[in-house]
Amino acid sequence: MTAEIVGGSEPAIKFTVYNRATTLVRLYNAELPWIYVGTLGAVLAPNSGQPITPNYHGGFPPTGMVEIPPGKSVSGDIRLGSLFHGFTDIVAKDDCIVYWSYFYPQYEVGVKKMDSKLFGGALFVPRTPAKSDAIEHQQ
Questions:
Q1: Distance between CA atoms of residues 4 and 123, nearest Å
Q2: What is the rounded CA–CA span in Å between residue 13 and residue 78?
Q3: Which segments of the chain have a pLDDT < 50?
Q4: Which top CATH class is 2-138?
Q5: What is the rounded distance in angstroms from the CA atom of residue 129 to the CA atom of residue 139?
Q6: What are the residues whose beta carbons fall under 8 Å from the beta carbon of 23, sequence distance 6 or more?
Q7: What is the pLDDT of residues 36-68, one digit of tens each?
Q8: What pLDDT was estimated at residue 107?
Q9: Segment holding 19, helix H or strand E
């Protein structure tokens, strides 16, 4: 699994899950963080402020499965503005770091069950001045 910051005016975390096995991998939709954010641990840490926890929405995890053929991947985005309340205002004032963790559940490769794994990382989100701030600085 990899994660990166994408999107200019509406930053998002893009997650990609790779199948490096030689057989098909099956995952439940509810196990993918961009489909069900309840599987994701995250904290937004502004450079000069208090850490902010995610704004998780309740609800039931979705049903269904995703199949990833050998050598292929699946990807999805989570918009940071929908994950963290007040994100736009915070990042307009300060650089931030998003710390994330994802517990990859026990999964199937062919007919074999594979052990679960824990992934995580930190992503830098640079200060993005609000449009009104950018106009004032140009004058």
A1: 7
A2: 5
A3: 133-139
A4: mainly beta
A5: 15
A6: 70, 109, 110
A7: 888 888 999 999 889 999 987 667 778 899 999
A8: 61
A9: none
- Token pair in block for residue 38: 């309840």
CA distances 135 to 8, 61, 116, Å, are 18, 43, 49
Contact of 67 with 110, CB cutoff 8 Å: no
Check if the beta carbon of residue 27 is closer than 8 Å to that of residue 68.
Answer: yes
Q: Which residues contact 28 (CB under 8 A, 6 or more apart)?
A: 61, 63, 64, 65, 66, 105
Among residues 4, 80, 66, 70, which one has the least CA distance to residue 29? 66
| Beta strand residue intervals within 87-139, DSSP E | 96-104, 107-109, 112-114, 117-125
Ordered by start, the domain boundaries in the chain are 2-138
